[in-house]
Amino acid sequence: MSDIPLLSVRGGKRLRPEGVRNLLIRGTNWIGDVVMTLPAIASIRKTFPDAHIAILVKPWVADVLRLCPDVDEILLYKSPGIHAGMKGKVRLAGELRERRFDAAILLQNAIEAAILTRMAGIPIRAGYNSDARGALLTHAVRRTREVRQVHQVNYYRAMVQALGCEPTDIGAMLKPGAEDQKLAERLMSEFSLEKGSFLVGMAPGAAYGPAKMWFPERFGAVADRLISELNARVLLFGSSGDRKAIEEVQGSSSFSLLDLAGKTSLREAIVLMSRCGLFVSNDSGLMHVAGALGVPTVAIFGSTNPVTTSPSGKRTIVVRGKADCSPCLKKVCPTDFQCMKSIGVEDVYRAARTMMKA
C-alpha cells in the first residue's frame, strides 16, 4: 500500500485524550468500506485507550464491527426506518445528545454526518473537510488530491493521524471471539462440513455491478481443480442478490458446491469464512472481510482499481486484468470486457496455490 500522506488540520488543532471519555465514531455505510476503516479505528483506540468508543453505522454493516475489538458499542442508524427523513434525523440527534459524547470522529465523508453531530451538541467534531462541511467541524482535515489517490485504508489512516491519533500496523483486523467460534462449530455441523476438511470460499458476485464480476464458468473451473487436486470443499458466499451468479458457478462445476447465498446472516457468513483455508473473490465486501480475517485471499480485479481498494491484510494477492481502459470504475462494461476476459482459469488457480503456500 502507498505511504500515508501528511495532512493538515485547520488551525493546527489536534485531538487530545485528556477530557475525552465518551467518543463517537460515525462509521461508513458499506461492508468493504467499513473493513478499510478498521486500521483507523485501531489508531483511535490506541490514542484513547480509556475512552468508551461507540460507533454509529447502518444495520447491514453492524456484524462486521461486532468482530472488531477496538469498539465498545455499536449504535444503529436505522434509515430506512425510524431515523429516515428529517423527523428521523432529529430523533437520532436527540438520542445522541442524551449520550453526552465528548467528541465525534467522522469517518463517513458526507455533510449529513457533520450536521447530525452538530445537532447532537457534540462539542468536538473531527473529520475530512469533504462535501462542503468544513465549517461544521471543529477539527477539519484538509482532503488533498494526493490522499484521494492512495489506498482507502491509508486514506482513513491519514485523516486520524492528522488529528493526532497514533499509527498502528495492519494485520488480521477482524477477530472472532469465543461465541463466534461456537457459532462456527454449529454451522459446520448444520452444513455437514467435516472438521479438518480444506474449505475454500468463493464470492462470485459483486453489488456494485457486473463490470466487477469474473465469469461464473471460470469460477466453476477453478473450483473443479481445487476439488479434484486438493480434495477441497468449496463454499459459495453471497447475498440473495448474487443468486444468478452463484447458480451459474454451480451449473458449470462438475462437483457439488455448497451454496450459502442468502442462507446465512452476515455474521454467520463471516464466522464460516474464518474457517476457510482460501478465499477467491471478485472485488467485493466479502473480499475485504476475508483479507481482514487473515484468510489467504485471491482478489480478482477488472474494472476497479487495486491501488485504492485491494484487500487489506498480509495474506492477499491480486489477479488483475490486462486492458488499456482498466480501471474504468464503470458498473457496466461499455466495450468488450477485455479486462476480465484476459484473466484465465490458470491465472487464478496459480495465485490460489501461491497463497496456500504463503
From TrEMBL:
GO terms for molecular function: ADP-heptose-lipopolysaccharide heptosyltransferase activity. One of its GO terms (biological process) is lipopolysaccharide core region biosynthetic process. Transmembrane segments: none annotated. It is an enzyme of class 2 (transferase). One of its GO terms (cellular component) is cytosol. It comes from the Bacteria. This is lipopolysaccharide heptosyltransferase II.
